[in-house]
């Protein structure tokens, strides 16, 4: 049976941090995407990022070099919300992560929603189902992408209780056709799967750094030389199976590990905040990037990520 919510034309709302990468993934799948961004400078930066991203994809042989211009032509940019969302099958919202801003946006969006339009939010932490107008709940989903969105395969999908499963199925199918590896969660929880796991890892990392057990370089080296590549093969739960569930049970019973106490903002983050050392965009974070070309670093990151995910994809196709 054909799904009544087939998705061909899409509006991406917001062209800041996540919008360009999401747009690139969507247009590369053959879809037409209207990118709505009211700020001209941000809109023009998004054009450049999408085009540069397509060129990087061609260099990594993810798309053909001769297809770059045709793919890029599928992205259309607008400062008019009505123009961007009229006649689309899916609205993918990626605006700033502030409840008041999202609430106001969805109110302004409501008059332009058509009968079969699906609305999805890329929200990282908000319970969007408590933010949107009640009239939207029957078509509201979350599609949570990870950055850089054009490269990272995972997208976590959650539908509202009022939305039909066919809508979630249509979004899942779209994501697969974009080369993504979507997971539909059974119900909403803040942080979804990966961000909750990462938050636990971050808590431990900051405890180690605050108490002088190791350096940031040590943490990264140890992670890259152990559980990160191993997870490409086994994941987390299967790793426990291979190591022996009884060992994990005994670790719990023996009290082999105690979670660090919660103590507010970690000292290392307080220090970085005071120094305005906000990472690569500021030229300094846990590492010093001064004197380095940020665009070159980003291109190098994307090229290496593309290779890593190619390898992960081969493992997934023939899993242990």
Description:
The chain is 46% helix and 12% strand. With 320 residues, the chain is an alpha/beta fold. It has 2 domains: 9-184, NAD(P)-binding Rossmann-like Domain (Rossmann fold), CATH 3.40.50.720; 194-317, N-(1-d-carboxylethyl)-l-norvaline Dehydrogenase, domain 2. An 8-stranded mixed sheet has the order 3-2-1-4-5-6-7-8. Helix 6 links the parallel strand 7 and strand 8. Helix 2 (40-59) crosses helix 13. The protein is globular, with a radius of gyration of 21 Å.
Strand order of the largest sheet: 3-2-1-4-5-6-7-8
**Outline:** globular
- Kindly estimate the percentage of residues that lie in beta strands according to DSSP: 5-15%
**CATH domain fold name of the largest domain:** Rossmann fold
What is the assembly state of the chains in this entry? single chain
| Count of all domains | 2
Fold blueprint:
Blueprint: E1 9-13, H1 19-28, E2 32-36, H2 40-59, H3 68-72, E3 75-78, H4 81-85, E4 90-93, H5 99-109, E5 118-121, E6 140-145, E7 154-159, H6 165-177, E8 181-184, H7 194-210, H8 216-224, H9 227-234, H10 237-243, H11 245-253, H12 267-274, H13 294-317
Parallel strand pairs: 1-2, 1-4, 2-3, 4-5, 5-6, 7-8
Antiparallel strand pairs: 6-7
Quick structural gist:
The protein has 320 residues and is of the alpha/beta class. It has 13 helices and eight strands.
